[in-house]
User: Fold this.
Amino acid sequence: MRFRAADGGGPPDEETYEGLRGLLTGFTPVVQALPPDAALADVRGALRYFGRDAAELAALVRVRALARYGVDCTVGVAANPLLARMAAHDGPPGAISTVPGEPRAVTAFLARKPASGLHGVGPATVRALTTYGLDSVDRIAAAPPATLQRILGASTGRRVYEQAHGIDPTPVTPNAPARSAGAEHRFDHDELDPDQRRRALLTLAHELGARLRTDGRVARALTLTVRYADRSTTSRTRALAEPTDHTPALTGAAYALHDVLGLQRARVRAVALRAEDLTPAEHAARQLTFDTADDKSRRIEAVTDRARARFGAAAARPAAALDRGTDRSPGGGDPDGTPARGPRRWGRGGPPRSPGRHAA
Assistant:
């Protein structure tokens, strides 16, 4: 299930998202959050209780989400998370797309998809498959498993083969380990100044870095989302050179994403950063370096993390986030004591998982 503002805006804010998640738990306790704009629900136990099928429950959820939060839902209903997510991704706003459970119906649904349409199949995997002429799901499904394993490796080849046949044995996991973490800054007015936007990104990167280090996680990618005055949004994602929780690396990636968008005259209402594909820091390899500045910055991070833990997030902020003697950084305040709008934390979710009847 994907959420979008009914007036054509972007994903809901954190408060609205939590309300939508609560709305889903009123139908089933098996809800997996996929912030900032999606969720996965296993509704098998709710079908008999409510006396409705999965598509009818999805329609009821959509009506309540519109009435309570002004948010529209695009819903995919299928026998497992893979098919449900693909159906939701392909559907127009407000649509409820159902994939019947019969093998022929699943085959027909998948056959029309390009290789990139399989959930979790990234550009590198698509390029490898396309090199061998496997550019569509039906061609991948027709390939022997051994061939896919030679092209992609044993684990990935087996997974892609199963996905091409609509197989996904993973369960929906409530309270799954975080796979993303994000923060958002809303400006008090439509912001035209790129320096102010970069200051906001700097503080958001510091916020994310501190959270990742506290949680013992590292990110493999970073996503920047920009919301404009007309409520439209633009998102860009950049893979990081190595899994990291290091603030300078996150800041550099955020600046690069911002510069690529070319927002010189754009009226920006909000900016958000999301650390993607989180993994435990203890499992990540770090590139060794002889750069003393890098070691020094990491030692400074450790000190500021301890200060923030003891005295609060405002105890240590980057000086570059301050503007001409006035603290206009997210989380700061004006000289008259009026607090500025600051970073807003998003919820965090994990990969889709579960056999059975699902709505994504």
Remarks:
- Confidence is low (pLDDT under 50) at residues 325-342, 344-355.
- The first helix runs from residue 14 to 25.
- DSSP finds twelve helices and twelve strands in the chain.
